Amino acid sequence: MSFSNDVRNELAREMGAKECCQKAELSALFMSSGNLSLKDGKYILSLTLDNAATARKAFKLLKNVYGLQSTVNVATRRFFRKNRYYTVSSEIDAKELTTLTHSINLNRQGGISSRINWALIGKSCCKRAYLRGLFLSRGFINRPEGSYHLEVICNDSKMAGDIQKLMGLYDLPAGMVERKNNLVIYLKEGEKIVDFLRLVGANKALLDFENVRILKSVRNNVNRQVNCETANLAKTVDASLRQVELIKQYVETSGWEGFPGNLRELAILRVEYPDYSLKELGAMLDPPLTKSGTAYRMRKLESMLEQAAGEQ
User: Fold this and answer.
1) Alpha carbon 224 to chain centroid distance?
2) CA-to-CA distance for 306 and 196, rounded, in angstroms?
3) What pLDDT score was predicted for residue 81?
4) What is the Cα–Cα distance from 12 to 259, expressed in whole angstroms?
5) Which of 134, 60, 135, 68 is nearest to 100 (CA)?
6) How high is the pLDDT of residue 311?
7) What are the chain's domains?
């Protein structure tokens, strides 16, 4: 099962404690996945969802909040692979439709509006419930082991703008991109995705996401440190080989007696211990020198050797 389905299944178990929150969540489901039709003088209110747990939740909410008896039909559609989808349908009369008008946010043509009913989500708890409903019907999130990505798919530009505005109220700067015939509202920052999961109540998914983020952060820090140390070691080895070669060339022509006294000891140590760092060489000098002191003396030694090599 995908991480996205794990999040949906968790959110499907999250029933809002207040009736206003349950209405807000239902409103989000209908805005993004709902349909209203007329058949034999009866209105058919339906939701088409691709997750069984979400369909069960919609069934319960319709019964708990509005007392509607619904049916759930399962069908399969074929694209690149078989996909099941679930249709939750309720048969309602004109009176029940009037009662539901505010919640499902009908447009002037008698269909379900693609705009957010802001009057329905005046409270912060209702806004969070609305975001939860949007993710349940149109949301997707990558596994945190890969790249960080959370999205909500929209089929209407006004709907997309409203969702961006709603997420912006919680400092979630969502981007928008067109994909085929849809608009996608997305978050790419791990921290913002964590904030979104916290808002909608996906606490287990949040902990799983954070655990992976921590592991990735530690792994990246370790790799960065190892790469840095490897690069420093390579520089040290290259410098040591160059210094040893210069010292040997000088000794062949001038002997060890040609070195000034304070440089001879360092030159001898460098030839005997080519893999030692400057700090380690400095500790072996008499008297010992610090790393910076040894580096200064080594620069003097190299300058003298390079000058001698250039005169030959």
Assistant:
1) 20
2) 63
3) 53
4) 81
5) 68
6) 66
7) 3-201 (3.10.28.10), 230-311 (no CATH)
Beta bridge partners of 88: 47, 72
Cβ–Cβ under 8 Å, residues 57 and 47: no
Question: In whole angstroms, what is the distance from residue 264 CA to residue 302 CA?
Answer: 12
Distances (CA, A) of 244 to 92, 248, 251, 302: 92, 6, 11, 10
> Looking at residue 78, what is its pLDDT?
63
Long-range contacts of 47-50 (CB under 8 A, 24+ apart): 47/87, 47/88, 47/89, 47/137, 48/85, 48/86, 48/87, 49/85, 49/86, 49/87, 49/88, 49/136, 49/137, 50/83, 50/84, 50/85, 50/86
Alpha-carbon distance values, 155 to 20, 124, 164, 279 (Å):
26, 26, 14, 65
CA distance 64 to 84: 26
Q: Which residues of the chain have pLDDT under 50?
A: 80
Q: Which two tokens stand for residue 4?
A: 């996205």
